[in-house]
Structures are given as structure tokens and as C-alpha cells.
Amino acid sequence: MLGTPIISVQKITKAYHLGDVRVPALRGVSVDVQEKDFLIITGRNGSGKSTLLRQIGLLDRPDEGNITLLGQEVTKLKESPRSRLRLQHIGYIFQEYALIAELTALENVMLPALMRQSVHIARPRAKTLLEKVGLSKKLKNLPRQLSGGEQQKVAIARALINDPQVIFADEPTANLDTVAAYDVLELFAQLNREGHTIVMISHEPDEQRHANRILTLSDGRIV
Q: Which residues of 113-148 are buried (b: 16+ CB within 10 A; e: fewer)?
């Protein structure tokens, strides 16, 4: 019997406005995510995948409905406690890596940890994570000195620095070649085996073999 979901989404809606035109992105979506799930969200472009991920990753707020994270209703939380929840419990990986160009790989990974702890604790933790993703010889490299796959691995290490319970990934392999994409997916599978809950957007059918659950969206609804 399943326990209490780590994430519970209840009938959320979200619309955007393009001038005077209201464009619905989510239409009453409900989904539960259990601890240690590897959930892949799929669907055509414009189906609402990234919008849904942003809601449950606390990067945006739904217009209606409720989201519970780790037993806490988060939809109406003020920004300061939402930021704390993101920092302490969530790792978010973007399609475009979102690394800071002026910082080395090591410094990019350390950055979220420095909001909670000293550099003396953050630095060795960041080094260990970069070793974990196979970048022990790239600590001092700037993002422009790394391949796309290496930049994404830095982003994954950064997402892990505060030991999050949930990792959200928005098409993390979309800009990678086949070999780099395979390496990144294997890394996600390893993280899931180690106990991390993963919610990932993917268009690629061969990536879905890593998931224990697949959620398909169409026009803002689950199909």
C-alpha cells in the first residue's frame, strides 16, 4: 500500500495572457508523486509540461488548485518560506544549464550551499559531487570551457549540493548529443536508485525506460 505522497497536486489550473488573449496552460491537473518515484512527464510542445513542472517545483504559482510538498500546503505560502523550501528540499535542472558564466564549475556547484553553510563545508561537498558526475578534472573550468554534456553534469551536481529530496529536470538531455544524453540519463537512474525522487520532462521514448511512471499531457490535461 502506498504511503503519503511526497508531492500532491490537486486540480491546478494556469493560464497566460498574450495581450488580451487568455491562453490556458493547465486545466485541472491532479497527480501524486510518491517518494523514490522516477516520474517522466511527456507530451507534445505546448501541452503544459514545463508549466506543470514550474508549479510543483515552486518556481511559479497556479491560478487555482492546491499543491502539497512534504506534507505542507505550499500554494499560498509567501515567497520567503517558498524560497527556503526550494533551497532545502528541491533540486531543479534546466534545459539550458543556467550556469553563471563568470564562475568555475566548482563555484557554480557551491553557490546554493553557501546560502546555508560556510565555504569550508560547501567546497569539499561540491568537489565530491563533481567527482560523482565524472568531472573531477574540470573543477576550475568556466562553463564556456565545457561541452554541453559537461555543463549539464555541473548543473546536476549543483542541484544535489543541498541533498534535495526531489529533483526536477526540464528536458535535461534536449541539447545533448546521443552519448552525452545517455550519460546524463544513467546518472539520473543512479540517483533514483540512491533514493532521490525524480520528476523529469522528456520527449524521447527511449528515455522512458528509466521511469517507473509516465504522465502524458495534452492541451493542459492528463491523458
A: beeeeeeeebbebbbebbebbebeebbebbbeebeb
